[in-house]
What does this fold into?
Amino acid sequence: MNSTKNLAKWAFITGASSGIGKAFSYEFGKQGYNLVNLARRAENLDKIKREVEDLYQVKVINCQLDLLKDGLEERLDHFFDEHKLQVDVVINNAGCGFYDLFVDSDLDLKQRTIDLNVSAATRILHYFLPKLLKRKTVCHICNVSSLSSIIPVGHFAVYSATKAYLSSLSEVLAAEVKGSNVKIMHVNPGGVQTEFLDKANQELVNKNNPFMDSPETVARKTLKALFKNKRRYVPGWANKLSVLLFKIPPKNLAIDLAYRTMQKNAIKKQ
Ligand SMILES: NC(=O)c1ccc[n+]([C@@H]2O[C@H](COP(=O)([O-])OP(=O)(O)OC[C@H]3O[C@@H](n4cnc5c(N)ncnc54)[C@H](OP(=O)(O)O)[C@@H]3O)[C@@H](O)[C@H]2O)c1
It folds into this structure.
C-alpha cells in the first residue's frame, strides 16, 4: 500500500521513459506522488503510466515532448494550462552521451549531447525555478549529473564536460536560493545499467561489472538524499571511494588513470 500523505503533490520527471527516469517514476509512485512524465516515446510512457497508477493508486500524466524541438517553454505552458497542476519536485534527468575519442566523433553527436545535457537542462531550470519559488511549500529540484562531472573520463570528453556544467550550475543555484522554499541537489551516479550505454555505443568488457548500479537503487537513494535537502550526492560506496581516490594523485596523473581505466573496461560498439 502506498502512503497517502503526498497525494496532492506532483513530481515532474524528464527522461521518464527508461532507465533512471523510469525508476524515479516508480519510486515517486511508491511514495504517493502524482507524476508528470516527460519523454518522446509514447509507448514506453503509456506502459509506465498504467503500471505506476495500478501499483500505487497515484495519477500519472504523460507529457510526450522532445526537449530539443523549438518552443519548449510554449509547449510546457500549453501542457500546464491544460492540466492546471503545480509541480512540487522537478527531476531534470533527460540526458545522453556517446563513447568515442573527441577527434574521431561526429560534430552532430557532440552538438546533440550539448543541446540535451546543457541547453535543455538549463531551459528546464529556467522554466521551473521561478514557479517553484512562488510556492508556499518546500519544493525540490534534482539535476541528474554524473560521476564524470567530478572525474572526467577519456572517450566521454564532451559528456563529462556537459555534466561538469550541470553540476556547477546546480551548486550555484542551490546557493542562490538558500533560505527559500526551493532545495536544489545534483546527483552524480557512476555506471548504471540502463539503455544509456547502448545508445552511447559503449560496450563493457566485463558484462557483469559488479560496480554497475541498478537504476532502481540509484533512484531510491537519490530521493532519500533529495528529501534530506542535500546539495550534492554520489550514490554507492564504490563511487564515493573513487571520488576520494581521485583527489590523492596529482591531477594530470588522476585524469590519465581515469582514461586508462575506461580504456581497459570498455570498447566502442562496432
Ligand atoms: N546510465 C549511466 O551509466 C549514467 C551514469 C551517470 C549519469 N547518467 C545520467 O542519467 C540520466 C538518465 O540516463 P539513463 O542512464 O537513464 O539513460 P536512458 O535510459 O537512455 O534515459 C534517457 C532518457 O532521456 C530521454 N530523452 C532523450 N532525449 C530526449 C529528448 N530529446 N527529449 C525528451 N526526452 C529525451 C529518453 O526518452 P525518449 O528516448 O523516450 O525521449 C530517456 O527517457 C542522464 O542524464 C544520464 O546522463 C547515466
Q: What stands out?
A: The chain has a mean pLDDT of 95. The pocket of NAP is lined by residues 15-21, 39-41, 44, 66-68, 93-97, 116, 144, 146, 189, 191-192, 194-196, 199, 215 (CB under 6 Å). The chain has one domain: 10-268.
